[in-house]
Structure formats: C-alpha cells, structure tokens
Amino acid sequence: MKKYFSILVMVICLLSSCSNEYVETKPVVQTTTSEYADLKVGICELNDSCRNTLTRGFWGRLFNRVVKIFVSDCIGAIKGAITGDNIWQSAQGASVTSASKQGGVTLLDVTNTYITRSSNAGDSMKVTQVLQPKSVALENLILVDSSATATINDSIGYYHNTIIYSTFEKKDNINYWKSVSDYTRVLELNKEIINTVPSTSYNDTILNIETVNFCKFIGEKSLACKDYKELLHETSVQYPELKNMLEITSGFFEGMELVSTEEEWEKYCKDVIKLITNSKIPEKDKSALKMGICVGYASSKLWRVEE
C-alpha cells in the first residue's frame, strides 16, 4: 500500500511540475493592444508637429461649449459602426441629444446674443441659429483626395450634417428639442434618415431602442462631464469594447485643439485617417474610427463656434 501511495505522490508531483513548466512557457496570445499603441504614438507625433505652429486662435469663443457635441458625434459613429446596424441613428442621435441635454449650457448660451437683441426670443428661438450657414455646414465634408471615388463611408459626414440640418429646419425651435423625450429625438432624425440616406447603405430604418439608450447616456454625460476627455473616459467605462478606439479619439481631439487654420484642420483629419488606414489594427476598427473622424470633422463644420 505504501508503495502505491509513493508512486501516486510521484505522479502528482510530476504532473504539477509539467503544469508549472507549461504555464511558464505558454505563448502569449496577441491582442490589438500593441497595434493601438503604435497608432497612438503616430497621432501623438502628428500632434507634436502641430504644437510647433506659433499661431493659435482658429476656434472661436464658443468652441469649449460645443466641443462635447463634436465628440458625441464621433463616439456615436464609432459605436454604430461597431454595432453594425445603427450607424446613422447613433451618430446623429448622439449629436442632437448631446446638444439638447446641454440646452442651458450650449444651445441657449450660444444664442445669448440673439436673445438679448430679439423681442421674439424664448418659444420662437430657432435651433438653426446655432448652426453654421448651409454654405459652410454642407460643403467640403469628404476627407478623401478624390470625391469621385468616395464610398458611403467617406460620405458619412455629409449625410450626418444634411440629416441634422433638414430635421432642425422642419422643427426649428430650440425649446422643442430640449423638451421632447430621447426616443422622440432619435425618431425625428430617423424619419429624415429614411428620406435622405441611400437605401443600399446602413440598416437604420428601424428605431433601435439600444441606440436610444446610448444616445441618452451620451447626452447626460455631455452635461455632467467637465470636458470631452472625461466624456470619453466615462463612455469607455460604460462601453469597454470601445476603449481602444476612444483612446485614439482622445488623441484626435487633442490635435483638433492645436490647429491654427481651417486648412490645417482639414489636413490634420486627412492625416489621421491615413495613419488609421496604414495601421495594423483590425479592419472593422479601422472602418469605425475613420467614420468617427469623418463625423467629428463634419460636426465641427455644422455647429457654430463663433458669435
């Protein structure tokens, strides 16, 4: 009996030794962490080159009040692209919900000059007054060298601005957008999505409740967070599957703050898209990030940053 017990002990020790040896020599499963780290370095280097520019002041006084809307748009496009079937609702819904939730901070604050000058302020305040003129908001939104070869993904910024502008024109009242439910905001946008976007593109014709909840989250966090970096962090906590992409997005918006002219801003966005294209991150993430950049750029041309 003692002999068998001794043999059993030896076998257990041998198995334990083999197990420990296996753990020590087991190959590490590769993730996208290093690929994302390389992309982040590339964007940091691009941002450093922008810091060498001496002139600043391209963005207007209202920039800090509306930048969280730009970021919300960008997040919405990325989230929608990863989900795969609610890109339009996510991008436009995040934008309008963010703007509406910040009503006292953003929309009405942006129009304070109009309120003091106009006797028709209040219920008659037009929401289009916080948008850029159409000549600015709907032009030069495709960030590729040749618009003739642009895909629907390249054109997402143009459709983003067109849909929001058309939706606001049909219900052109700030108080309306502040007072309606999150569901109604996305529903109103979805009506315009159906009328505007080619039927062969993203499947966004059925209102997605999960998307409504996402837009509600973005809107509430836009109001609660002190700046866009906190907004990105809070979103990555709530949606951890977006963490890597939101870290890249943070670097992108840091670069946005560094550009000096409109021409620099457009070039910067194109350079970021090239960095993403040439990176080794998964193709699905590349596509989502590039759509987020296109929407963020379009949003910056849609909302007013100057009085």
3D structure, described in words:
With 307 residues, the protein is an all-alpha fold. Helix content is 67%, strand content 0%. Helix 3 (63-83) packs antiparallel against helix 15 (283-302), helix 12 runs antiparallel to helix 13 (243-256) and helix 14 packs antiparallel against helix 15. The protein starts with a helix and ends in a 5-residue tail after the last helix.
List the helices and strands and how they pair.
Blueprint: H1 2-25, H2 33-51, H3 63-83, H4 87-101, H5 107-110, H6 112-117, H7 134-137, H8 156-170, H9 174-179, H10 182-196, H11 209-224, H12 228-238, H13 243-256, H14 262-278, H15 283-302
Helix pairs in contact: 2-13, 2-14, 3-4, 3-11, 3-12, 3-13, 3-15, 4-8, 4-10, 4-11, 8-10, 8-15, 11-12, 12-13, 13-15, 14-15
Descriptive terms for the model:
307 residues, mainly alpha, 0% strand, globular
| Computed structural class | mainly alpha
The general outline is: globular
Q: What's the helical proportion of residues?
A: 55-70%
Q: How can the largest sheet be summarized?
A: none
Distance from N terminus to C terminus (CA atoms, Å) equals 93 Å
Low-confidence stretches: 1-31, 104-122
In round numbers, the mean pLDDT is: 79
Number of H/I helices: 15
What is the C-alpha radius of gyration, as a whole number of Å? Answer: 24 Å
Q: Total number of β-strand segments?
A: 0
Pattern of helices and strands: HHHHHHHHHHHHHHH
Which percent band covers the strand fraction? Answer: under 5%
